[in-house]
Amino acid sequence: MKKHKLKERLQKNRPMTMISLRMPEDVVEDLKYVAPKLGFSGYQPLIRAYVGQGLRADLARLEKTPEVIQLVENLKKYGVKDEIIDSAMADLNGVRQAA
Question: Is-above-0.70 flag for pTM?
Fold first, then answer.
């Protein structure tokens, strides 16, 4: 992610928009159970965190330069495991993936 976009994303007073999302009841109950255990004030901030985490990972993957793509292909050719490459890319892009 570009530095200026990251700086914008870190601002607490960003405008919000309301959406409606249909989810299975058991998933919502699990979110409500997990949220306080992870330090969230409710399940909606937890959902935003999950969406943000996945979005950052996808944006990082989509923003790969041709040089990085070639490097990854070469690492695979030399036998470096996908898990190691993915972990290194996550570290490079500031995205921690859950194990």
Answer: no
